[in-house]
Amino acid sequence: METPFFTKCLFEFIGTLVLILMGDGVVANNTLKGTKGNNGGWIVITIAWGLAVMCGVLIAGPYSGAHLSPAVTLGFAVAGTFPWSQVLGYIVAQMLGAFCGGVIVYLYYKDHFDITDDKDTKLGIFCTIPAIKNHPRNFFCEVVATMLLIFVILAIGNNENTPEVGLGGIGSFPTAMLIMAVGMTLGGTTGYALNPARDIGPRIAHALLPIKGKGSSQWSYSWVPAFGPLVGAVLASLAYVAVYNF
What CATH number is given to the structural domain containing 146? Predict the structure, then answer.
């Protein structure tokens, strides 16, 4: 029985919300003043982000395929494995889920937001900030990292690898490992957004929430994590189709 389109979008919303709640949550736990997990380090963050993706995929996978990212949705459509007619609905659901996830993280850690002075620390919980601000190179980094992500995700879903299992089943574990690996190897320059919804949805939340001493939402940089992953996804999908259909 075909899953109704509304149900698919609903699970994209829920899965993305869980992804951001846990992913932004680990950043808050590591960087906000006075938390039990303060200064846990980059390895803790990358592992938790991978597990956050796994949880989101397990929730949404059986119903929507668990894209949880406009880059994944666009990449699958370019690769011919997802209908173009459903792309906009998925992206809207993902953006809303990411926004709501960011809001919940703020409410959860509000006391710690209030006692943390550094503005960039607060912003970095919601969205990515480059280690060295160089927009052309930051854009290049997001394109390359997302190309790797999408290409390997498509390979994971290849019938030769998972003949009867989608990303929502056993495939969620290698996807989690992939996110960890990308974060540990290529995440140090930009914070590895990889996902426009993961960055833009919570960035909007940062702009709208009454966060004490929050500072700028740095919209002048936001085009990098918004468009870099989309370009990377398209290039990865074209490369995947060319290589696997050779």
Answer: 1.20.1080.10
